[in-house]
Specification:
Layout (H helix, E strand, L loop, with lengths): L3 E5 L6 H14 L4 E5 L5 H11 L8 H25 L3 E5 L2 H7 L11 H11 L6 E6 L2 H10 L12 H17 L4 E5 L4 H17 L1
Parallel strand pairs: 1-3, 1-4, 2-3, 4-5
The structure holds adenosine-5'-diphosphate (ADP) and thymidine-5'-diphosphate (TYD).
The site of adenosine-5'-diphosphate has 15 residues, from helix 1, helix 6 and helix 8.
């Protein structure tokens, strides 16, 4: 059965909220669930998360940043995702490789995107995709206002602004259109409970199939 699920979307779209609500709902239905996130999701990857999300925007070159995200993903896969799938659990991850395709793949700050390098590194070091990806789609202004309402040290990416988030949204929608068997696009501009109900229905249809 195909039990590896990911949430994707721009900052503040509601991924973390929805991942948590889905995990609770599936547990309530008797599924064993591992809820995890990227960057992070294993001890080593959480250390890399701090390196990559805190500090100045120019702290790492785009290439170094991509290597750090990929290293974190490899550790997450080895230490958390594969063992949980082997135990028969449903794995829900808040972000996975599609986030690298967008955030590192897209052109920004006057530089070309690293799309081809992202794909090559993914093929070399990761090599798996989720069985189902729930793309939580919202207007970037709404996402940014939600994300900025949260305080914290992890502001490096959110500080990159609205124009970048707009291109990310378009990029995520294009990725979903290119992989319709894996992606479901969910309208995130509704009350959390309404979004959660659709997420659960889509997931149960997938798990049952
Ligand atoms: P993400 O993980 O995509 O960045 P979060 O789930 O952390 O998004 O949500 C960002 C902020 O918006 C949080 O403060 C959260 O409580 C709030 N939020 C999440 N979903 C909704 C929603 N459907 N409507 C209004 N606020 C929301
Ligand atoms: P996250 O904690 O999910 O932020 P948010 O809750 O605001 O959506 O992710 C932190 C940031 O890391 C986010 O701006 C996206 C970025 N990121 C990448 O640039 N590449 C990646 O491969 C991943 C997984 C995340």
């Amino acid at each position: 059965m195909a039990r590896f699920l990911s949430f994707e979307g721009i900052d503040g779209s509601g991924k973390s909220t929805q991942a948590r609500l889905l995990a609770e709902a599936l547990r309530g239905l008797g599924h064993a669930v591992t809820l995890t996130r990227e960057p992070g999701g294993s001890a080593g990857a959480e250390e890399i998360r701090r390196l990559v999300l805190e500090g100045e925007p120019e702290r790492w070159s785009p290439e170094t940043e991509l290597l750090l995200f990929t290293a974190a993903r490899r550790d997450h896969l080895e230490k958390t995702i594969r063992p949980a799938l082997a135990r028969g659990e449903v794995v829900i991850t808040d972000r996975f490789a599609d986030s690298s395709r967008m955030y590192q793949g897209i052109a920004r700050d006057g530089r070309e995107g690293l799309g081809a390098t992202v794909d090559a590194l993914h093929a070399l070091m990761i090599g798996v995709e989720p069985d189902l990806t729930l793309l939580i789609d919202i207007d970037p202004e709404l996402g940014l206002s939600r994300a900025q309402a949260r305080k914290g040290a992890e502001q490096r990416f959110e500080d990159m602004g609205l124009e970048l988030q707009r291109r990310m949204r378009a990029g995520f929608l294009a990725l979903a259109a290119a992989h319709p068997a894996r992606f479901r696009v969910i309208d995130g501009a509704r009350a959390p409970e309404a979004v959660a109900a659709e997420v659960l229905a889509v997931t149960l249809a997938h798990l049952g199939g």
